[in-house]
Amino acid sequence: MTVYHGCNLNCRYCYEHRANKDANSMDFEVARNIITHFMEADNGFDNNEFQFFGGEPMIVFPLIREIVDWFHTQSWKKGHIFFICTNGTILTEEMREWLTQNKQCVAAGISLDGNKAAHDIGRSNSYDLLLRNLPFFKETWPTQPAKMTIYSETIPYVADSIIELEEMGLYFTANIVFENIWGNAKQKRNLLGMYKKQLLRLVDYYACHPHLEPVGPLLQRDLEYINLPNRKIKVSDGDCQRYCGAGHEMVMVEVDGTTYPCHRFAHWITNRTAPSAPINIQKGWKPESCAQCNFITICPTCAGFNWELNGDTGIRTTYHCEAFKLELWASAQLQAIRLGQCEPSDLLRLSGHEKNRIKNRLEWILEFAGKEL
Ligand code: SF4
Ligand code: SF4
User: According to CATH, what is the number of the domain 1-144+252-279?
Assistant: First the structure.
């Protein structure tokens, strides 16, 4: 639920620049009706997760508290969890106290784009504000990953950022954006060269810290699902999988109660009317360059961005293509090193399924990891 369109920051890559600021915050009645609808709907789901989204939802903390407190006065047949997507910079004593009391059913996830140098580039110099509150988020929801978004200006800081977050003991994910951040051909070549160096530094770092889980999804690409030539998955109608839950398990509700498959489909982002159902069901691999690609079975794609740019949720944007392949290559290098670090006794304890996964990974590593990209 987008509960508020305003924000105390002005992040560089945020869609909220395009939002209609006249319709700013959700009314309690709208939230109550939506929640009641989904908690009572006979739709096959026994549990609902309600996310408070913005802008910065903590600016309307009294509304969030009113919604959750009301929710707990009712009796429901379905399970629930509330989640707050926040920039983590606004946290009063009152908020801390309420969040701590409700942490079993209200979780919060922060956006943290790396170390201070990287974070401050695009997120309104808010690193110091966030750092002050970081221990609270880390201690209250230790298994909730912070989200590190990578874009052109932060590529030079990727390795330093990830190493710093690991040294802080933070649980986090890192991913590069789908958008065209690459500039002209020369700029793109330079950025990709820089990204490759950053990834190789991270391969070295994780190789030297075998107790650490490599950061996902960046260095945890699921190599065993790649469509190798000797394991050709039939790429035709019916074989395509959805990458995300937009329009299926997921519904986004605007401040005025309008629904979209996910926030990326809002008309003020795409300048298009959202597709009518069924949406986000890929009927064939498109474009042709992707249809011929062995990595398509694991390559991420954003249905909303596809819709915005191509007018079809199933026609993929490919700006992230080369960066994604570098991540695969680095993941393969790291997994090869990690397999070499296994004790023989550990390998003997693996189940048949796990051995099969390793065999599939090895096929891929042998095929790809040594190649020069
Ligand atoms: S974007 Fe690139 S890596 Fe992804 S499926 Fe298309 S061609 Fe393959
Ligand atoms: S459509 Fe894009 S933004 Fe929305 S859930 Fe899917 S991947 Fe995420």
Answer: 3.20.20.70
